[in-house]
């Protein structure tokens, strides 16, 4: 049984990134919903059922669709960040709404519930259950993109010799789980505001705040407050094409750019990898970047918004990622 949570279409906020993040209800482009169909599933040897491009969309009938069921042992162990199994009689989640402290609303509008389970709004993934994700339905993350202008020793902005645009840098971490470079983000805690999650995650991942003394934490908090209280750009809100996604659980994020125009705030903060990060460094922004999940697309949008260098090829368009 499929119960419609309302309209089939998505609100525009999730559609503005490009087709490789959302496939939409009415079909999938060739490069859409790609990472959510890759095998083996992260952290396992589980192979997803193969889903061809033309069968991604739920509106395409596929009677023989037979996805693999998988939820990681770490999730089934029942940690505080994870839901119980749908089959547990004491568990009655309120999908498509705020459920106590747990946000079960999607940034992309209402999603459908099928046989008591939420249905991935971007389409089939070849796997049911939750995989590594704790929540049924949307799992909310926050991605802080901290930027500054690349400068020479005299403090002058460095321009790219071909594009003639200033080179922007952002703080990147190397993830311990997969070894890929990424934005230093993470999951939003139940009841936590996005703004607080953005600041907390950056502190934990890029400044190793969890290992600091009380005095160091206070000093860190003061500098972070300067950075995170200034004007910022919301780069993206919504569904993310992520290798952890399943038919019943998926990642959503709010990616926000905080820009240190003079570079003075970040000069007072020492980058130090912490929590889930293996390494942390300033990285020049350009179209050669190979980053985790949809992070390259977020970084490209930041470069466009800040009128910074992105590509040596002036013809590069939005689908060239």
UniProtKB/TrEMBL annotation:
GO terms for molecular function: ADP-ribose diphosphatase activity. Residues 149-305 form the Nudix hydrolase domain. SUPFAM superfamilies: Nudix. Its EC number is 3.6.1.13. The keyword Metal-binding does not apply. Residues 203-230 form a coiled coil. InterPro entries: NUDIX_hydrolase-like_dom_sf, NUDIX_hydrolase_dom, NUDT9. Transmembrane segments: none annotated. Keywords: Coiled coil. Residues 23-48 are annotated as: Disordered. It catalyses: ADP-D-ribose + H2O = D-ribose 5-phosphate + AMP + 2 H(+). GO terms for cellular component: mitochondrion. Monomer. Interacts with GLOD4. Belongs to the Nudix hydrolase family. NudF subfamily. Hydrolyzes ADP-ribose (ADPR) to AMP and ribose 5'-phosphate. This is ADP-ribose pyrophosphatase, mitochondrial. The gene is NUDT9.
């Amino acid at each position: 049984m499929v119960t419609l949570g309302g309209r089939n279409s998505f609100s525009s906020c999730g559609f503005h990134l490009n087709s490789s993040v959302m496939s939409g209800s009415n079909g999938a482009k060739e490069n859409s919903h790609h990472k959510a169909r890759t095998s083996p599933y992260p952290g396992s040897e589980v192979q997803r059922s193969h889903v061809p491009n033309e069968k991604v969309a739920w509106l395409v009938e596929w009677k023989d669709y037979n996805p693999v069921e998988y939820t990681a042992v770490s999730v089934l162990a029942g940690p505080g960040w994870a839901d119980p199994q749908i089959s547990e009689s004491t568990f009655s989640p309120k999908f498509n709404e705020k459920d106590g402290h747990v946000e079960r609303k999607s940034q992309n509008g209402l999603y459908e519930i099928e046989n008591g389970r939420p249905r991935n709004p971007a389409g089939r993934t070849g796997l049911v259950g939750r995989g590594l994700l704790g929540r049924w339905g949307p799992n909310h993350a926050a991605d802080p993109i901290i930027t500054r202008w690349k400068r020479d020793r005299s403090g002058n902005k460095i321009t790219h010799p071909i594009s003639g645009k200033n080179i922007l840098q952002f703080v990147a971490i190397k993830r311990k789980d997969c070894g890929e470079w990424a934005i230093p983000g993470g999951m939003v805690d139940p009841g936590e505001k996005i703004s607080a999650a953005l600041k907390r995650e950056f502190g934990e991942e890029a400044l190793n705040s969890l290992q600091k003394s009380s005095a160091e934490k206070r000093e860190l908090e003061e500098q972070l407050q300067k950075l995170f209280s200034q004007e910022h750009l919301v780069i993206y809100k919504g569904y993310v094409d992520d290798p952890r996604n399943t038919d019943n659980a998926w990642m959503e994020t709010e990616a926000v750019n905080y820009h240190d125009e003079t570079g003075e705030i970040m000069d007072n903060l020492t980058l130090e990898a912490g929590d889930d990060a293996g390494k942390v460094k300033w990285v020049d922004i350009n179209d050669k970047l190979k980053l985790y999940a949809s992070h390259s697309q977020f970084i490209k949008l930041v470069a466009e918004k800040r009128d910074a260098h992105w590509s040596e090829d002036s013809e590069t368009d939005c689908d060239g990622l």
